[in-house]
Amino acid sequence: MDYYVVIPIHNEEDFLKNTLDSILEQTLAPKKVILVNDNSTDNTENIINEYAIKNSVFKKLNSISSTQHMPGSKVVNAFNKGLELLDENFDFIVKLDADLILPKNYFEVISSHFSNDKFLGICGGFIYEQNSHGEWILNHPMDKDHIRGAIKAYSKDCFIKIGGLKSAMGWDTVDELLAKFHGYTTHTEDRLKVKHLRPTGKAYNAKAKRLQGKAMYSMRYGFIITAIASLKMAMKNKSIKSFWNNMTGFLNASHNQDEYLVTEEEGKFIRNLRWTNIRRKIGI
């Protein structure tokens, strides 16, 4: 299958070479890889130039945006700018982070899943991060069928149906919810162990703390589901502050009547899906 990769990149001089080398080593090579240099102030652009000269599969795009590393909007805006350079002659498209090491057969396995299941909309592997002892440990705090935003691959049809990626916190949840709304499935492949070189959120701005609650509002979760999801997150993080941050973000968004990311019909589907999952987990 043919596929494109878009990599939003902001100040990744320490990790970028590892990611690009792992792409060059893939057993199934991409048609094109768009490297979006998103307002980097370190040596990132020189590394991009080096690889663009080394292999024609890499194409550079410079983008000017905020220097704040906010989750959601910054990375998706950069991705969408890279997307504009591509045509629609692909079978699946990949949003990739710039601080990863992929197994050599990563995209070959992804391709086989899309080839064998026409209803598969989103696919990816699992993220592993190094602990203080140098061991690579699975870091997947969400449900097992969730694909982390760093390594998401979308079938062409699914990507078009969901309207691409939403420029907001929660984009890597709403994409899967909308995929299911349109009748697609998602799949995480446990054979694909991706090394994540910088733990999630290490560079995030302090303003990001309440964006998760705002995202739940924008996906039309409603107060009760948001409270349940926030409590679950707080328990996993062992931090009651994350619960209050989420709820404050939700209530602020509700008070300000912020825009929703989904329609009323999609929101109803999402709430029903969430309630179904909650009942299943508690055995009702």
From TrEMBL:
UniProt keyword annotations, A-Z: Glycosyltransferase, Transferase
Pfam families from the UniProt entry: Glycos_transf_2
Secretion signal span: none
CDD domains xrefs: Glyco_tranf_GTA_type
GO molecular function terms attached to this record: glycosyltransferase activity
Family, similarity comment: Belongs to the glycosyltransferase 2 family.
Annotated PANTHER family: POLY-BETA-1,6-N-ACETYL-D-GLUCOSAMINE SYNTHASE
Protein name listed in UniProt: Glycosyl transferase family 2
Taxon lineage: Bacteria, Pseudomonadati, Bacteroidota, Flavobacteriia, Flavobacteriales
